[in-house]
Design brief:
The protein is an all-alpha fold and 115 residues long. Helix 3 packs antiparallel against helix 4 and helix 4 packs antiparallel against helix 5. The chain has five helices and no strands. The protein is globular.
Amino acid sequence: MNQIVDLEIIKSALLYGEPSDAMNRIESRIKALQRNSELGGKNYPAHIEFLKKIADYIKGNLSTGELVLYLRSSKLFELEDYDSFVDAFAYFCEYSRDRYNLRYPSFDGKRCDDL
């Protein structure tokens, strides 16, 4: 189960203003990961928690600052410069949230200030 693939798909959906696609990916991956562990496969609790945090962020239940604190406290990805990743990802999330006024499930699908 590759966390980076999930992250990139979710980021792409958010970038193009499709939070429903991002939430569909999150929900399907959580179910698949839980099913895998129920069937005796490997457990992925950190990945499931990460997906749930991203879902909370998209729904507006988690601020960007709280997301940053979570990412810094639990080093989720094996990256050479993890702190730079966290800063870049937080900027990306805030940009997407502001650009499309994301508050899943209610959003208008247009960029902010578009007529």
